Amino acid sequence: MSILSVNNVNKSFAGLKALNQVNLEVEEGSVHAIIGPNGAGKSTLLNCFVGRLIPDTGTVNFLGQSLLGITPHAINQAGVARVFQTPEIFGDLTLLENVKIPTLAKRDGAFSLRAWSRIDQDSLVTDKAEHILEDVGLIEKRDILAGSLSRGDKRRLELAMCLVQDPKLLLLDEPTAGMSRADTNNTIDLLKRIGERGITKIVIEHDMHVVFSLATKVSVLAQGTVIAEGAPEDMKGDPRVQEAYLGGAHL
Amino acid sequence: MTKQPTARNDLLLMAVFTLAILTMPIWAAPFGAGYPDLLQKFAIYGLFAVGFNILFGLTGYLSFGHAAFLGVGSYTAVWSFKLLSMNVIPAVIFGMMTSGLFALLIGYVSLRRSGIYFSILTLAFAQMSYNLAYSVLTPITNGETGLQLAIGDARILDNMFASEAATAIPATNLFGIEMSGYPGFYFCAALLIIGFYIALRITRSPLGTILKAIKSNQNRMNYTGLNTRPYTLTAFVISGMYAGLAGCLLAVTDPLAGAERMQWTASGEVVLMTILGGVGTLLGPVLGAGIIKYFENIFSSYNDQVLHGIFAFLPDPIENVLVAITGLFVGDGWHLTLGALFMVIVIFLPGGVIEGFTRLYSWVRAKVKQDAGGNSVNNGKSQPQSAE
Ligand SMILES: Nc1ncnc2c1ncn2[C@@H]1O[C@H](COP(=O)(O)OP(=O)(O)OP(=O)(O)O)[C@@H](O)[C@H]1O
Ligand SMILES: [Mg+2]
């Protein structure tokens, strides 16, 4: 069964066709990689899934429900979490607070007034937040301000912020960019582990090592169009893919 | 590392704060500030700034129109005195209710924008209220004269229990205790302590953390499943009610209300207080309010005669020049001093007076450690605690 189905989606920016008749079926429980050269429209496509952009035409359905015109916070509450290409975190808050926010959002909904209880005495939230920081290896830094983290650590923090919500669909826009080889491998392990929890993932990656270690299916996007789709092994040697990447990343 | 304040730290903070406020008549006296009128102002504007900080410091929305809520609070309080009772309790309750409703309305519209557009919208609303108070709304506000008490006011509740008609305008009171002088100060002080405690609880609560997160990254907030609009509106209404309460207390200690209380300079003043003391800190706004009201009181009372007295020891020509120059900064010109002070703070201490204390504290600590000798560096915590 597909958890997300995208039909004939088009999106233009002032004449530039960023997405051109995109079709995509994401199977529940799969790790679906989207690869393609810079400017292919990968991030734009994700923007259409989280309510940041509305496609000009076409449909996006999540678990049978249309996502078009739904506010970002409502889409998140429905079970879609996203890691951005440039990390979006709360720079002025500590790491622990950063993870507590999505924990609260998951538990209390889009709006709830808890103005009198102390957040540091909310053991449910604290435990969950600490646990996830441990999972991503950031627990020692729990009390420092997130803005001072390295780029790689910011990514891992953002990943933790998404994972703590136990989303049904996790969108990852280049989750290992800016990480060392060792950190990349840690992240792959982490993503594999959460794969066991049955979270469906869409991963945008330029690092083919990551793609081939994680993905169960690969879609290749070039100039706003899906030019090839299939199992990772099949995509490796596909001439169309080589063509699209010519001068771009290495396959 | 930022040390997170625990419940015990906060209890200590509350205890020290309460003690400091209640003993203010004693320790403010040597500074020439130990008289009730000024002490009342400290408490009232402290409350105003504490509430303002919930919106500005915590949530990151800079309102330039909060004086409107101050004005609404004052008008409501005076009307409560006129119609219901000279008891201050109904005045405070109604004042907070009307300012809260007013804030809900203005906040609902203004919060559709953020940043500078939000600030301009609040400024526009406040100026509108100010102008309306002078024109269309004169039946409610009594226009330029301002709303005042009269012997013949209805005072329904009071008159139900009174045996004979009043022969003079009665004083505002708390179940018989007149709200002028020190009792008036202690009433304001009690509300400041309660207001401070509520602000402390909000800051440490999930709501407070969410408000801080909104200030930090509104974009991440949306994609994290939280609807920011009702949260910012909550912060706006809460801070509007604080302002309304402060307005009530102005009327409690001096029962009249005028539109000038809503003027943009009054809105600007609370911004200055908060920044001067330390945006986003708990104590900062109270300190900022105290400092501004204190200097306003001192500098605005100076006049050329006082200055001549100060510089009398100098030869006449020099004395005259000095008086001419410093004369610009005192009396009505004291805002010039305020402006200069504000610039110095913003440039050298963007975190306000609180940041100054924090820096001083860590400097002294480092100094003490140095003097104690390099071999015992490792005892105790080495992190400077952030003062709040
Ligand atoms: N908000 C926008 N306004 C105008 N043009 C945009 C906008 N967002 C994306 N584009 C353009 O759309 C095209 C696709 O961009 P997109 O960010 O989706 O590429 P991408 O595949 O994610 O590339 P990369 O690998 O570099 O992240 C680019 O030409 C980009 O300049
Ligand atoms: Mg991209």
Automatic annotation (TrEMBL), chain A:
Domain ABC transporter stretches: 4-248
Family matches, as Gene3D superfamilies: P-loop containing nucleotide triphosphate hydrolases
SUPFAM superfamilies: P-loop containing nucleoside triphosphate hydrolases
Alphabetical UniProt keywords: ATP-binding, Nucleotide-binding, Transport
Annotated Gene Ontology cellular component terms: plasma membrane
Database matches in PROSITE patterns: ABC_TRANSPORTER_2 (PS50893)
Pfam families: ABC_tran, BCA_ABC_TP_C
Molecular function terms from GO: ATP binding; ATP hydrolysis activity
Protein name: Amino acid/amide ABC transporter ATP-binding protein 1 (HAAT family)
Taxonomy of the source species: Bacteria, Pseudomonadati, Pseudomonadota, Alphaproteobacteria, Rhodospirillales
TrEMBL record, chain B:
Keyword Cell membrane: yes
Subcellular location: Cell membrane
Organism superkingdom: Bacteria
Protein name (Swiss-Prot/TrEMBL): Amino acid/amide ABC transporter membrane protein 2 (HAAT family)
Matches recorded under InterPro entries: ABC_transp_permease (IPR001851), LivM-like (IPR043428)
Gene Ontology CC entries for this record: plasma membrane
Transmembrane segments: 12-35, 42-64, 84-109, 116-137, 184-202, 230-252, 272-295, 307-330, 336-357
Keywords of this entry: Cell membrane, Membrane, Transmembrane, Transmembrane helix
Membrane topology listed for this record: Multi-pass membrane protein
UniProt KW Zinc-finger keyword: no
Organism placement in taxonomy: Bacteria, Pseudomonadati, Pseudomonadota, Alphaproteobacteria, Rhodospirillales
Pfam families reported in the protein's UniProt record: BPD_transp_2 (PF02653)
Principal location: membrane
GO molecular function, one term: branched-chain amino acid transmembrane transporter activity
